[in-house]
Amino acid sequence: KSYIQGAVETAIAAGYRHIDTAYSYNNELDIGKALRSKMEQGIIRRQDMFIVSKLWCTHHASEDIPVCLKKSLNDLQLDYLDLYLVHFPVGLKKMGDELFPKKDGKMLTSDKDYIDVWRGMEALQVSGKVKSIGVSNFNILQLERLLALCRVPPAVNQVELHPYLVQTEMIEFCKSKNIALVAYSPFGSPARPPELIREDTDPYKLLEDPVVADIAKKHRRSSAQVLLRYHVQQGIAVIPKSDKSHHILENTKIFDFSLAEEDMTALRGLDRGWKNQVSSILPLCMKLPEE
Fold it and tell me: Which keywords appear in this protein's UniProt record, sorted alphabetically (predicted)?
């Protein structure tokens, strides 16, 4: 049994019902095994779970969109997804199975417009293979353009959110448009690879920030629990990642305490517009046409 399958089984046993994955994570086979195992044990039924996956950037052509979904469904051993997201608003050229096709060290982008991609997503929802559709890593301009041209508005925008990246405008915009926000990297991705650590703009690991630590001490909680509660209290869904069973369990224990308004203000005061996920794709997303 892989550590991913073990972690998902532990999470389900601890009460988790929302599992977030993606074509590009290369873990859907193991998640599928975990879901199957827990269903066979009678711990869960399919309708108890909320399973999310994402369309990868190399599959933005209309004929490739259902292919990407089919692969995810097959690997997950499911008939449908509860939510399917466009992973990024930028397309990449399709070159075999490469996730990040490059030539001379440069990422090969495709000219697929995310509006056309969205038409394919709308068709998937009509087919019943996905219950809801949404986006990920879209900025406000991209959301506005999508809302103006779509038939079905996105149910969700999944973005990086934490006290170093508060994104107040995004939160207010999504609320005003009835788009649910899902926060990834709520701890600032402490396990990220060393090449993504930028000392000058990254003075602390968020989990070790003294402001967070003080609030945690006051409430007799862990820093991780405070950071999760920060989102939940704002009505934002949050998807922490852990493969350690004690952390998986600890992360569930955030519904029996509240942060005071002064705590929330102190956490928001840490904002430095700091993005950990400066993946090679995000800069491309910023250069997209919005008109």
Answer: NADP, Oxidoreductase
Task: Determine contact, residues 270/227, Cβ cutoff 8 Å.
Answer: no
Tell me whether residue 87 is annotated as binding.
yes
Predicted TM-score of the model (pTM):
0.90
- What is the CATH code for 139-291? 3.20.20.100
Cβ proximity of 26 and 56 under 8 Å: no
Same fold yes or no, 1-113+124-136 and 139-291: yes
Local structure of 267: helix, strand or coil: helix
Which residues lie below 8 Å from residue 250, measured CB to CB, with a gap of 6+? 222, 224, 225
Q: Encode pLDDT of 9-52 as tens digits.
A: 999 999 999 999 999 999 999 999 999 999 999 999 999 999 99
| pLDDT, mean of residues 143-156 | 98
> Which of the following is catalytic: 3, 16, 25, 184?
25
